[in-house]
Design a protein that fits this description.
By secondary structure, this protein is mainly β. The chain has one domain. About 10% of the residues lie in helices and about 50% in strands. It has two helices and nine strands, in the order βββββββββαα. The strands form two sheets. Strands 2-1-5-6-9 form a five-stranded antiparallel sheet. A hairpin with a 2-residue loop joins strand 1 and strand 2. The longest helix is centred in the C-terminal third of the chain and has 10 residues.
Length: about 150
């Protein structure tokens, strides 16, 4: 079972007992946290899709620690101008461990297997649209040279 969940503005594919590094969260280390913006849940081939999120579904996690990521060097240069700037950056991260995925509020209408979804798309037929005749454009004005 896995879920696609939005955490701190980014989307992650998570499973139970997985460790994930996300942008820094405001909660204390060791505390429990839950994310309710679950976009998709796959339970052994049964896919529940949200529009945009699944109501009642949530992913619970435990915050393990707050840390900084690896250093990234930002180097800017304009050739032949003598312009060079070197900066470094370390992203503030939080390591979380996924405790569980619950899909309590999912409706049965939203649960669609992947095989059924493919056949539904082929069965839908668009109604033909009647075309209106195009309006005639007015004739171009003749210049003095063309009238002679």
């Amino acid at each position: 079972m896995y879920a696609i969940v939005e955490i701190a503005g980014q989307q992650f594919k998570v499973t139970k007992d997985q460790k994930v590094y996300v942008h820094r969260l405001q909660a204390e280390a060791g505390s429990k946290i839950s994310f309710d913006k679950v976009l998709l849940i796959d339970d052994n081939g049964t896919v529940t899709l949200g529009a945009p999120a699944i109501e009642g579904a949530e992913v619970s996690a435990k915050i393990l620690e707050h840390l900084k990521g690896d250093k990234v060097i930002v180097f800017k240069k304009k050739r032949r101008k003598g312009y060079k700037v070197k900066n470094g950056h370390r992203q503030a991260l939080t390591e979380i461990q996924i405790d569980g995925i619950t899909a309590n509020g999912s409706d049965k209408k939203e649960v669609v297997s992947t095989k059924k979804a493919a056949t539904k798309k082929t069965e839908e037929v668009a109604e033909p649209v009647e075309k209106k005749p195009a309006a005639k454009k007015p004739a171009a004005k003749k210049t003095k040279e063309e009238t002679k």
